[in-house]
Amino acid sequence: MRLLTGRDPSTGELTRAHWDADGVIVQIERLGTGGGEPWLAPGLIDLQVNGYRGHDVNAADVDAGTIASITSDLAATGVTSWVPTIITNSEDAILRALTAVATARRVDAVVAAAIPFAHVEGPFVSDQDGPRGVQDPAFIRPVDAAEVERWTKAGPVGYVTVSPHWPGSPEQIRAITALGVAVSIGHTHATTEQIRAAVDAGATLSTHLGNGIAATLPRHPNAIWTQLADDRLTCGLVGDGHHLPAETLTAMVRAKGPGRAFLVSDATELAGQAPGRYRTSVGGDVELSESGRLSYVGTELLAGAATDLAFNFGFVLGHTPLSMRACCELACATPGRIVQRLGGRRCGELVTGSLADLVLLDDRGRVLQVVQSGRVL
Prior knowledge:
Blueprint: E1 3-7, E2 13-19, E3 25-33, E4 39-42, E5 44-49, E6 51-52, E7 55-56, H1 64-77, E8 79-87, H2 91-107, H3 109-114, E9 118-121, H4 145-152, E10 157-162, H5 169-178, E11 182-185, H6 192-201, E12 205-206, H7 223-229, E13 234-238, H8 246-256, E14 261-264, E15 276-280, E16 284-288, E17 293-296, E18 302-305, H9 309-319, H10 324-341, E19 358-361, E20 367-372, E21 375-376
Parallel strand pairs: 5-8, 8-9, 9-10, 10-11, 11-12, 12-13, 13-14
Antiparallel strand pairs: 1-2, 2-3, 4-19, 6-7, 15-16, 16-17, 17-18, 19-20, 20-21
């Protein structure tokens, strides 16, 4: 039967979702107060994924098969929607990755439903060590709306991460948003004034706030405080316990308030792989620990993210005061609203008329069962 039953994280009420042969939810039954049943939630939505289980969105040989493989592997963990993230590179490389995303969506309806658009994280970011992270300085360049317009002809671009320190950034941001592409602030050494100008020009998101920034900052003002304080910005947060300490993430979520923060994995191709040492094309020799921390060999410096959103969901639930309801807001409802705002389908909600992307979760946030586009996985 095409149905799944569990407790609604918002109300605790025992709820049953029914869907039809097309995978569309046709009925939501409310069955009264729940007891010890699993939680029934929308599928998790990850708005920032660079790769997974050995597949890399940014690889030189990326193709539609790469994108389809990541889609399938993430779905098995409970992530039913995701956004391929393309990092700083040459324009040709960015176009190649976008073409792979577009092709994968065209030939596979499940992939098309799972991927609303792509995110280009750069190349318009800080060129300074620290805030640029592992972005290749050889390809970093000023914000250019004309280049973004060329990207949109190759594949669906939902948002682009920029550092608004570049001269003329507000004008370029206005031109980018006029294309229907959202602007996110990240990997930046911009001043408070430059960030405010970017938001005034139309920037609406912050990319993994608290990371992609200098290790040492003035107490105040600084780019973190400015973005936390501006209600026009909705902030992504890496919830793996390594990029942000639990108390930092908690404070950031509380500062932004309901609906203005969301969890991302920022996963790389090493996410989902066995612990050990690896050689990567970006960063060289790295070590993946049992806890999912990815660091440069012999140091405590992070070398990217290596856990998926389902892991992060469980970490945040277990290591912060945030409730199951709050965690579902961070990993389902808020990113779902962003997807819809940027032109994607309705997702992240338990409502009739939407695709049946569903997960059953235990009290620790572990995924027990997954339904993607009406298919029980």
